[in-house]
Structure formats: C-alpha cells, structure tokens
Amino acid sequence: MNDQQTTLVADQIALRNLMDKYCDAVNRGDAESWISTWAEDASWNLLGTVVTGSEQILGLWQQMMAGFEFVVMMPSSGQFQIEGDTATGHWYLQEFSRNLEGVGNTLLSRYTDRYIKQDGQWLFSHRDYVFIYNGPADLSGSYLPLDQ
C-alpha cells in the first residue's frame, strides 16, 4: 500500500470513529463529548431548524435531549468522499427512544455531512438530519423514501 492509500484508509477509519464517538455521546447523554465532534463554526440542520456555531448547536441538542428518558442511536452504514482536509458523506441510523411520558419510538434516519480536518482531527462542519421512518417499533408508521 502506498502513502496515499494509507492516508485514505486512516481518514476513513477516523471518520467512522468520529461517528462512533458522536453516537456514544448521544447514548450516554454526554454533552461535552458530543460537542467535541463539531468544528467551532459548524452548522446543523436538524429537521429544518438550522443553527451555526458550537454554542448554538449544543443548545439545540440539549433542548432536544431534555425531552427523552433515554435515546439509543446506532449508525448502520456510512459513505465518504475525501478530498484532502475536507470530506462529504452520509450515514444511516437506527434510533430508539422513550420520552419523559414513557412513550417509545423508533427512528430510521439519515445524516448528510461535510467534514473538516483541523489539527489532524476530523470534525463535523455541517450536518443535515432527516427522518426516513418515525413511529412505532412495528414499523406501522409512515416511511419517507430518500432522493438519490
């Protein structure tokens, strides 16, 4: 394997580890670890609500997480296009939650991302989040097909 291939493999592993850290922080409710996956000037489009900057991103996440007794987020697959110190990609996720009223929910979702490598570390620079499915675990809810 040449140096360029080694760097590509290392970057792909680092991007997967970034998503693993993100999901682990969600599952544990660890705000400090979660926000450390974002670039300082990043932006987040959460179901049409767009915020920019790590303080606003963290605030939206904390507001959203406050409505749940628990959340378990599991990434299922991801793809990347890496160009130097920037990359684009997407992830599919399975999510299970129970709100403060005890109502459970199942989500299938997709993140479409932009990444930036700063000081040798990959971070999210922009994330768009959409539901593919949102409803009961028996999948009787509505499904939103994704565009290609």
Written overview of the protein:
- The N and C termini lie far apart (33 Å).
- This protein has a six-stranded mixed beta sheet, covered by helices on one side.
- β4 (86-99) and β5 form a beta hairpin.
- The mean pLDDT is 94.
- Helices cover 29% and strands 49% of the residues.
- The chain has helices spanning 3-28, 31-35, 54-65, and strands at 38-46, 49-52, 68-83, 86-99, 104-118, 121-135.
- It has a single domain, classed as Nuclear Transport Factor 2, Chain: A (Roll).
- The protein is built from three helices and six strands.
- The protein is an alpha+beta fold and 148 residues long.
Give the C-level CATH assignment.
Alpha Beta
Shape: globular
Low-confidence parts, pLDDT < 50 over ≥5 residues?
Answer: none
Give the strand tally.
6
Number of helices: 3
Comma- or semicolon-separated keywords:
148 residues, alpha+beta, six-stranded mixed sheet, 29% helix, 49% strand, NTF2-like_dom_sf, SnoaL-like domain-containing protein, SnoaL-like
Task: Characterize this entry briefly.
It is built from three helices and six strands, in the order H-H-E-E-H-E-E-E-E. By secondary structure, the protein is an alpha+beta fold.
Give the topology.
Blueprint: H1 3-28, H2 31-35, E1 38-46, E2 49-52, H3 54-65, E3 68-83, E4 86-99, E5 104-118, E6 121-135
Parallel strand pairs: 1-6
Antiparallel strand pairs: 1-2, 3-4, 4-5, 5-6
